[in-house]
Amino acid sequence: MRPGRTSFGGHPLVNTDLLTGTRAVRRRLDLRRPVDNRDIRECLEIAVHAPSGSNRQPWRFVVVRDVELKASIGEYYRKGFAANLSGRTPRPDQLADLSSGQFLADNLAEVPALILVCSLGRPPAEASALRLASFYGSIYPAVWNLQLALRARGLGSTLTTAHLAYEREVADLLGIPFDEVTQVAMLPVAHLLPGSDTSVRRTPAAELTGWDGWAKPAATPAGEGAAG
């Protein structure tokens, strides 16, 4: 952004409240209220301003509105979601998320819009950590940009990947060239239900950060100056 710029497309620049209040939303998606295509277009325009390796800008998007298409994708999503849970014993602290995840799986066809985020190319079959990080690291910033833009407009979303267990089938359904394009995520998009609490609880960064080494606390207390 240019110095001094305070808005983009008539909306305030992202701030701390937006950055800390954009959470994964599943149960609190309003399945009855329509989502304006104009809002989706504006959010996608913000998504493409994300950084990418060598400025490749590999992102491509597919917006799904058609009820029958959403229902078909929902079938693949449910099968992928169930397969991912098969044989697992969830921890007590995971039960709430699993319950909301199941709600989304059961109601995916009712969500007003699905946005599939894709990347040009396929990750190499035996890629190094460097190449994989470069491939996915060049697309996920656009996903986050998109989620922030949606949240700024009162829309909720969550990053999902369960349908990728059937990526080829979904590619065939939507005409995505499977050998040339990789689906990396799908965002169900809807308005937030009235009264939705979007605050999130997180472990403080100080407990998760090492300075000049793994698990080494900062030498100076928070808020004090640091050497450059």
Count helical runs. Answer: 7
What fraction strand?
A: 5-15%
Report the mean per-residue pLDDT as an integer: 87
Q: If you consult CATH, what is the topology?
A: NADH Oxidase
Query: In angstroms, what is the radius of gyration?
Result: 19 Å
Helix content: 25-40%
Number of domains: 1
Distance between the termini: 24 Å
Main sheet specs: 4 strands, antiparallel
Secondary-structure-based class equals alpha+beta
**Oligomeric state of shown chains:** single chain
Return the CATH class. Answer: Alpha Beta
- Level-2 CATH architecture: 3-Layer(aba) Sandwich
- Uncertain spans: none
CATH homologous superfamily caption: NADH Oxidase
Widest beta sheet: strand line-up: 3-4-6-5
Number of strands: 6
From the spread of the alpha carbons, the general shape counts as globular
Written as H for each helix and E for each strand, in order along the chain, the element string is EEHHEHHEHHEHE
InterPro entries: Nitroreductase, Nitroreductase-like, Nitroreductase/BluB
GO molecular function: oxidoreductase activity
Protein name: Nitroreductase
Keywords: Flavoprotein, FMN, Oxidoreductase
